[in-house]
Write a structure and sequence with these properties.
The complex is a heterodimer of chains A (about 350) and B (about 325).
Chain A (H helix, E strand, L loop, with lengths): L3 E9 L5 E9 L5 E5 L6 H9 L6 E6 L2 E2 L10 E4 L11 H11 L4 H15 L14 H13 L5 E5 L7 H18 L2 E6 L2 H7 L2 E6 L2 E6 L1 H6 L4 H6 L6 E5 L2 E5 L5 E2 L8 E13 L3 E8 L2 E8 L11 E7 L4 E3 L12
Helix pairs in contact in A: 2-3, 2-4, 3-4
Chain B lengths: L22 H31 L16 H8 L1 H32 L6 H13 L2 H11 L6 H8 L21 H30 L2 H9 L4 H29 L3 H6 L11 H11 L3 H9 L2 H20 L1
Helix pairs in contact in B: 1-12, 2-12, 3-7, 3-9, 4-7, 7-9, 9-13, 11-12
The chains are: A alpha+beta (about 350), B mainly alpha (about 325).
């Protein structure tokens, strides 16, 4: 087991822009740490530098307290799962899983035991003789995980391992993956652009944009207490409403935006909400409209009847405690202790 | 859903389908040019060659009188045939074995990133783009018995001439000594087919996903392990294609031998193709020429079958 740390990690590609810009990040031992950000934000580059597949322009990577910046991937005691799974197409599942062990020159009998153990944990014992092309997406993902697990690495690096699965399979894979990580207790760094994966699986989430960490915190902190407007609007679907008022930018979640007359009596901020249209999504109902010139959305459970017909303007309110205040020019929170 | 829609009671009138929209018409129509081409340029000559080989036709008397397998037995019993057959296989398989090793090496080097890569790739492809006859004439000069620049280089390196390793003559006489002549032909075939094989392998190398290479890196495989367990196995199908192409080009080639040595010295570099030409066209015995050429047929058919199999495999995997 080990921790992962980066110190001032920076990567410039040819064009002069920093893909990763001086990132300081430290995991705790056994943590499930998610790197979340839009595509092109530098999260995969960061992961590849941690894995040793990409040499950093400057800065250091530490694994288990040791500086490994100049070590090749094979010397870092890490295992990686790729978005494409990167199984060796010409090898059977058994040989795929055994490949890292063969590279370690482990005796054949030990290889056999370990492959059986890893395949058992991931429930792919029946597939060992198959070739990758004969497997479904979910099975391939498990083989990739088994190949990562089999050498008992200090750190797992996972690069969007669920994005090639269909939506249904992804939900159950999320569940399995988290259980699996809890069971083996290996420090895991998980890259994704999917906020549901990040919120659902991460112990902590690092929200990354343009090569820098915007916020690092638990899913609760990230969602309820965003550090800036980027984090506020990147998480949540639909994202946080941002409404200018009195020189500030007020942020509130759609589910906190409710008709003023049904609101409790405690301190509320009210807004005139001009309703444009309503979206019925089965379990919930979204009401789209404007507050002043700013677009806003309110979200209700579908079984709650709300007096808000398209075309009308209604008084809506948000509890003071659910309001976040941002600086409109910097985008940073002004009401949050740093 | 419980509602059903009643079918319309009015009989539907139907527009006839356009002639070219019918698969039964369009398909054969589009295949026709290819079929015509193959029948005229492959099928007809092949049938003609078989007929010739079973007859006594010559340049002087082109009436086809069938005489059975006499031509084949006569050719088989000819001492030159044994030499030509041996040389054909030697040149083909030795050159392709060399090509296989060298092309892998070159492709590996060229797949790395370095300055001037495009230029080097272009230069490597040049031998392939040169017409065979011109290249062979170039080599004829290079291997000249008196003025060979290779000999001159060897001489100035102190390797050729009196009291030197290759001495005492001042020339190697590349094309006059049987062994050296065979070696020359062999190396020219290698030189000629190497570029295509390299480019094919290079394409194959670039087609290996970066993720797979990264995974092998993370999994702890060093250069040799990656080469032997990942790269070469993944390249195998495309390597087969490269070698099969090389086999066809070398096996059927008559130009190199014809230009360089005309089969000499004393038929020591003769191959089936050049002998068939010398006998059938220059010697006027069309029937025997056809019989000699037809000995190429089983090997070519086998290679073609292998190629089709590889192609089908790559399709299905």
């Amino acid at each position: 087991m080990a921790t992962v740390e980066t110190r001032g990690l920076t990567k410039h590609f040819g064009d002069g822009n920093a893909a990763v810009n001086g990132i300081d990040l430290a995991s705790t031992d056994g943590e499930f740490l998610v790197l979340l950000g839009p595509s092109g934000c530098g999260k995969t580059t960061l992961l590849r530098m941690i894995g040793g597949l990409e040499p950093p322009t400057s800065g250091d990577v530490l694994i288990g307290g040791q500086v490994v910046t100049d070590l090749p991937p094979r010397a870092r005691q890490i295992a990686m799962v790729f978005q494409s799974y990167a199984l060796y197409p010409h090898m059977s599942v058994y040989n795929n899983i055994a490949f890292p062990l063969k590279a370690q020159k482990l005796p054949k009998t030990e290889q056999k035991q370990k492959v059986a153990w890893a395949a058992g944990i991931l429930g792919i014992d029946q597939l060992l003789h198959r070739k990758p092309r004969q497997l479904s997406g979910g099975q391939r993902q498990r083989v990739a995980l088994a190949r990562a697990l089999v050498r008992e690495p200090n750190v797992f690096l996972l690069d969007e391992p669920l994005s090639n699965l269909d939506a249904q399979r992804r939900a159950s894979a999320r569940d399995e993956l988290q259980l699996f990580q809890r069971r083996v207790g290996t420090t895991t760094i998980y890259v994704t652009h999917d906020q549901v994966e990040a919120m659902g699986m991460g112990d902590r989430i690092a929200v990354i944009d343009q090569g820098s960490i915007r916020q690092l915190g638990t899913p609760h902190e990230i969602y309820d207490d965003p550090a800036d407007t980027f984090v506020a609007t990147f998480l949540g679907s639909p994202p946080m409403n941002l409404v200018p008022r009195g020189g500030d930018l007020l942020g509130f979640r759609p589910e906190h935006f409710i008709p003023a007359d049904v609101a409790a009596t405690e301190a509320m901020a009210t807004f005139p909400f001009h309703v444009h249209r309503e979206e019925y999504l089965g379990a919930e109902r979204l009401i789209y409209g404007e507050v002043g010139d700013a677009k806003a959305v309110a979200r209700f459970p579908a079984n709650v009847v709300v007096p808000a017909a398209p075309g009308g303007t209604y008084d809506f309110a948000v509890r003071r405690g659910d309001l976040k205040i941002f600086n409109p020019t910097t985008g940073l929170r002004t009401d949050r202790p740093v | 859903m419980t509602a059903t829609v009643a079918p319309p009671s009015v009989p539907a009138t139907r527009q006839p389908r356009y002639l070219l929209d019918r698969e039964g018409v369009l398909g054969p129509l589009m295949l026709l040019p290819a079929v015509l081409y193959i029948v005229a340029l492959v099928g007809f000559p092949l049938v003609l060659a078989i007929l010739y080989s079973l007859s006594d036709v010559t340049v002087g008397d082109q009436s086809i009188d069938l005489i059975g397998f006499g031509n084949f037995t006569a050719v088989w019993d000819n001492g030159t045939f044994q030499k030509a057959l041996r040389n054909t296989f030697l040149f083909t398989f030795a050159s392709q074995a060399l090509v296989l090793v060298l092309a892998n090496l070159l492709a590996l080097i060229l797949s790395a990133d370095f300055h001037g890569k495009r230029l080097v790739r272009f230069l490597i492809l040049l031998p392939w783009t040169t017409p065979i006859a011109l290249a062979a004439i170039g080599w004829l000069w290079m291997l000249d018995s008196v003025y060979s620049p290779i000999d001159a280089a060897l001489r100035s390196a102190g390797l050729l001439g009196p009291d030197t390793p290759f001495g005492p003559l001042r020339n190697m006489l590349w094309l006059s000594k049987p062994d050296l002549a065979r070696l020359s032909v062999l190396l020219i075939h290698t030189w000629r087919t190497l570029p295509l094989a390299t480019v094919i392998l290079l394409a194959g190398l670039t087609a290996i996903p970066q993720d797979v290479k990264d995974a092998a890196n993370v999994d702890g495989a060093g250069f040799w392990r990656q080469l032997i367990y990942i790269r070469i196995p993944l390249l195998l199908p495309i390597m087969t294609v490269a070698v099969l192409y090389g086999v066809i080009f070398t096996f059927t080639d008559m130009t190199v031998v014809y230009v360089l040595t005309r089969g000499g010295p004393i038929d020591n570099t003769q191959v089936l193709a050049s002998w068939a030409f010398l006998k059938g066209v220059e010697g006027g015995d069309l029937a025997q020429g056809a019989a000699i050429a037809l000995f190429l047929f089983p090997v070519m058919a086998g290679v073609a079958a292998l190629m089709l199999r590889t192609a089908r495999r790559t399709e299905t995997s």
